[in-house]
Structures are given as C-alpha cells and as structure tokens.
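Write out the 3D structure for:
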Amino acid sequence: MRDVQVTAAAGVGRRVERGAEAAPLHGIAALQRAAGNAAVTRWIQRVAEPPEAGREREYARAPTEHGEWSDFCSMMREAGVADDVVDDAWQLVLGGLADQGQVNAEAERLEGVQERRDHAASNTWFWDLVKLVGNHLEIKTPTLALWSGGAAVSDHAWAKGHTPLERTRFGRVLDRLVVTPDWDLKLPMWSVVSKAFVSRATGPVHISAGLRPGERARVAGGAAVAGDSADESKRHAALASRVHAGRRDASGGESRLGVGG
C-alpha cells in the first residue's frame, strides 16, 4: 500500500521522548498536542457540518475538516478497528474521492462501456483501502447477499441468514456516512468495496431484489432476471456481473448464484 502521510492536524501524530518512539497519538489527542486546545475547540464545532460537494481535495489535505470524521472514528472503533487503521482508512477514502474526478475524466475518453466502467473503478486509493480493511468485510453467514430495490430488501436478506455488504463491520460504517454527495465520485468506491466483499465468498451467493407482486426471479444465462421487466432484468444482470467480477478478481473462478426474494 502507498505510504499515507497525514498531517498532525489531520488527526495523526507521534511523540518522541528521550530518543525513543512512544505510542502514537490519534484523533483529538494528536490534534491537541500539535495545535493546542483552541484548534480542538474549532474542530469540535466543525464536526456537525455535512460534507460539501467540490471540497474533496480540501478534505483530503485536511481530513479532520470533514464533518463526518468524528462519526467515522467512533463507528470504526466500535467495530473493533485499530486506531492506526482508522486514520489510514479515512485518508484513503478522502484521497480516493479527491482523485476520482480525474479517473472519471480518463474513463470518459475510452470507447467501450465496460472499459469505461472498469477504468472508473481502478482508483488505486480505493484498492489500497480494501487491502487495509479487507478483514473487516468478513462474512459471518454461510451465504453472501447482493441486493437491489431498497434497504428493506437488504434487511430481508439479512433476516433470512445472508450477509449483505452493509452488515459487515466496514460496510456498516460506510453505509451510515455521506462522505460526499457526489455519486459520480462515490459510486466507484462502492464498486471497489463491493468487489472486495464478493471476493470473500466461499459458497453460493444469494441475490435479492425488490420484485413486483407476482414476479418470480430466475437465473438465465448466468444472470439473474426477474419477470419480463427490462428494468428488473438490468438490475439483476448488474448484480450478477458484480458476483462474477468479484470472484474472477479473487481466484479466476466462477460463481454460483442463489436468487431469492
């Protein structure tokens, strides 16, 4: 993974006593040592501010300026993630968002739809992120779940004993944050995280979707298709492609799809 350099004002600092390196300071403690109590007070006043579109590079340079920094720290620590991983993961998220606009511009110059999609999801910040937090995408049920059609579908899959991305430790944190309101920047991050999540599947993959009353899902040609609805078919095909892409990235193998409501 690339070396992530975060300034002391960004929440990471180290102190040295008598020539020996002591334990690193994180969060407010590091900020207080680096910039004093007044800076901590200003930081606390800012944390309630929602993230703004167009400020991604600014947030990447000063991660604690982001209004969700405190929430991210709290939720990651509640999930049992070590402080040094929390700090680095946040920097990778924000750095990736800052660079994604350029990656998207490069993707737009490519001809094929799949080629553009693949390039948009090639942001190395996000791939470094999933290397860092991969163990926190652990699947604790026999089957992994992919879904479309709203949060109720995800909740239903979870109730049936399948694990969707947002029920993993890191997925739950990411799902609760806005990070940026710009989905053109955020969607590739979710794509990379989703592929890393799928790559952890060791058994069948359960696919759920919000279907119209009376519709039944089926598997056709390796993609899940629902009824005769073109929109539903596209949604299921997209889910199936995520399974195949994630499995190929992990081991070169194929997936087994379990489709359910």
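The chain has one domain: 8-260.
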